[in-house]
Amino acid sequence: MADDQRPDLPPRIGIDRPGSFSRSVFHERHPVLIANLLADFPYPPRIRERLEALLDETLHGAVPAVVPPGPNLPFWEAEIAARAGTPWSALPYLWAESYFYRRLLEAVEYFDAESPWCGIDLFAPQKHAQLAGEEIQADLDAYAELAEKDPDERRQALLYASLWGNQADLGFRTDNDIAGQSDVVVDDSDAIWDLVDGPGERPVIVVADNAGRELTADLALVDAILETTAVELHLKPHPYFVSDATGQDLLATLDALAANANKPVQALGQRLRDAVRDETLRVRTHGFYALPSTYRHLPPALAADYAAAKLVIVKGDLNYRRLVGDREWDPTAPFGEVVGYFPGEVAALRTAKSDLAVGVPRARLTVLDTASPDWRISGTHAMIQVLH
Ligand SMILES: O=P(O)(O)OC[C@@]1(O)O[C@H](CO)[C@@H](O)[C@@H]1O
């Protein structure tokens, strides 16, 4: 909560403003999310009741004084001590959403070692459906065809695939058909490749976002970066926002690649499996990735790892919110100034799915706001922004 009271930063985005995107997440998406869970799993009455009570609490109630179980308990104890009694409607959006997912895990007994539901990924049915779907097959067919391309063109295509892979966020799909790809509003791709190709043995860190099509595309990008330098792939420590990628999802994706009919896809799967085994691709996680704090409040060890990397690529909209700060920024505020605090070189790859944006040139902003007023939340517009 440390930057809550910073007068030098714009106000935090809340969830109370009628008509706002963040309010619609709680009032429109979460009811669908809970209904999907109730349809996907034969939860017994106690879990069903908890899920329904949680939804009701988020719409009409306040934060209870009880600390939800799970890792990072001291962090949550302090947070709950500070927020208990606060109506949900008065919470900051980033905090409220993160806390909601922690409470969801509590409701389904994810961390309860005495429960048969312990450790069962509540989003697994949706993730598996995507991994077995036709769209991912089309993505992999396209991947196989890239083998013919010039290496620079190929890796740029993989960068864009990873970027647009973020559109396939399953949380986003609870009430949306997949949106068309429209436009890369800011494109600092060249800076990414300059950093990747830079001297030294330092790794590139990729902070993954969603499982399914996005993780598959991210892994193809990781494979391309591995031709130049070592990579660390950072995953979520446990299920978090809908479809967030965990270690289990990585293994499922590697299996899906190995089982694919396309030879180049099988070869990709094998290269990645070998790279994980010999740790040219290090797979890591950190409790920080499931907290509501922003990257301004990095744990020191993670900050040191970021500082030592050639480049940190953070994927997706939630990571963007955590990197920039989930605040009412002027969209024309320079990206480099807003994230200048970051301890190393950082690139953000996201399709825009929340009200937040920075680093948009003013003329471009005017055109976007006129021609596509919902460009910030529709997932049809993407950004590749680099601090270097
Ligand atoms: O990080 P991702 O997967 O790109 O996007 C996550 C996200 O779309 O989900 C939330 C809605 O539930 C938004 O607030 C958020 O930005």
From TrEMBL:
Manganese found in the keyword field: yes
Record-annotated Damage-control phosphatase ARMT1-like metal-binding domain positions: 26-362
Alphabetized InterPro entries for the sequence: ARMT-1-like_metal-bd_sf (IPR036075), ARMT1 (IPR039763), ARMT1-like_metal-bd (IPR002791)
Reactions catalysed according to its record: beta-D-fructose 1-phosphate + H2O = D-fructose + phosphate; beta-D-fructose 6-phosphate = dihydroxyacetone + D-glyceraldehyde 3-phosphate
Keywords: Hydrolase, Manganese, Metal-binding
Coiled coil: none
Pfam families per UniProt: ARMT1-like_dom (PF01937)
Cofactor: Mn(2+)
Keyword check for Secreted: no
Sequence similarity: Belongs to the damage-control phosphatase family. Sugar phosphate phosphatase III subfamily.
Protein name stated in the entry: Protein-glutamate O-methyltransferase family protein
Native organism taxonomy: Bacteria, Bacillati, Actinomycetota, Actinomycetes, Glycomycetales
